[in-house]
Amino acid sequence: MYEFRVIQKQFGFDNVSSVGEYHEEPEALATIRKRVKRKYTFAKFARPSHNSLAIQLTPNSMCWDVIVKFQSEGYIVNTVSTTRDRDISYDDRMRYGVAYGDTKFVNITTNINRVMKIINETRSITGERVLERAMQQSLVNFDKGLRHAQNKLSELQSRVFYGFRDESRNEMLLEYCLATMEQRPVRGDVRNDVEGAVRDYLEKKKDLGESITASEGLQVLSLFKIEGNDKVFFHYRDTTAGEMQRIKHVDDVNKLPDEILAKAAVLQATGREAMESVGYSYSECRVLSSIGAVSDCSNLGFMDTAMCVYVNPETMAEGEALVGY
């Protein structure tokens, strides 16, 4: 399965035109429309071009499920759940006008029954799947974000003397050891270099120390909003049930506890660009220490919001008391 952001670009409602509606529909496509309608009562259709038909199989689909093109007495069938294992031959690509870079979702057949089989086997992109995928790509980095300041401190400690060459570091260590053993002062140049590096470390540690202290005892509550859906879903780990993961939703974001709303507002006001990066996944997560973290929804696909806030246990208890999903 391709990343949902790729699927949205190819099959998104806003990315597929309907200019073909001004042309008479080819009989082959009209037949497919009728057969689909018989099985999928609530199916919807669009005409991206004079010889193609886009199909939304159910109202739960977040995008067009299938786009069928009738050309050269054959059918080019693109579906959201097609993943090609083999390349399409050069001759077939030339015959059916399929560009080399556009083959990932493509099935080619001359048999209308095969077309219907492909359509019936299509697995739609639903809100439930979008939410599940967004959580898979975001939750790990949201957890990392809570430990971000501590991780930065650990990295800072490991790099206190990183600016010195190996020989210099060895020389400084040896000089301090010898000075202790010989009960004499450390050489002035070595002492100045070491104390300069340590002063720089202590200055940077001071700010991180405040972030670490502010993050102590906080828990991760993640917030997700799917495109076209008014519900705000929130995810947390139930510490009273062996860290079991819970997912609930509210129909009105203002029903969430005040601390959640306040910290979410700080994240929105700050903006992703002013936050620090955490993790290396498609979510492109950015964190604001002790406040929360935000994922890049354009890389998740079909998501309006994917963020988390770091809250006190009392606030988490208030969230747990809300109606379940």
Structure description:
This protein is an alpha+beta fold. The chain is built from ten helices and twelve strands. The chain has a seven-stranded antiparallel sheet, sandwiched between helices. The chain has a five-stranded antiparallel sheet with strand order 1-2-3-4-5, with helices on one face. β3 and β4 form a beta hairpin. α2 packs parallel to α4 and α6 packs antiparallel against α8. The longest helix is centred in the middle third of the chain and has 28 residues. The radius of gyration is 28 Å and the shape is elongated. The mean pLDDT is about 85.
Number of helices: 10
Mean pLDDT, as a whole number?
A: 87
Strand order of the largest sheet: 8-7-6-12-11-10-9
Note the main sheet. Answer: 7 strands, antiparallel
Q: Percent of residues in helical segments?
A: 40-55%
Strand/helix succession: HHEEEEHEHHHHHEEEHEEEEH
Radius of gyration: 28 Å
- Low-pLDDT stretches are none
How many runs of DSSP E, i.e. beta strands?
A: 12
Q: Which structural category do the helix and sheet elements fall into? A: alpha+beta
Q: Beta fraction of the residues?
A: 15-25%
- Intertermini distance: 26 Å
Shape label:
elongated
Quick summary:
With 325 residues, the chain is α+β, with helices and mostly antiparallel strands. The chain has helices at residues 4-11, 27-39, 90-96, 112-120, 127-146, 148-158, 166-181, 188-215, 258-270, 313-320, and strands at residues 44-46, 52-56, 66-71, 74-79, 106-109, 219-226, 232-238, 244-250, 276-277, 286-288, 292-294, 303-311. The strands form 2 sheets. The chain has a 7-stranded antiparallel beta sheet, sandwiched between helices. Strands 1-2-3-4-5 form a 5-stranded antiparallel beta sheet, with helices on one face.
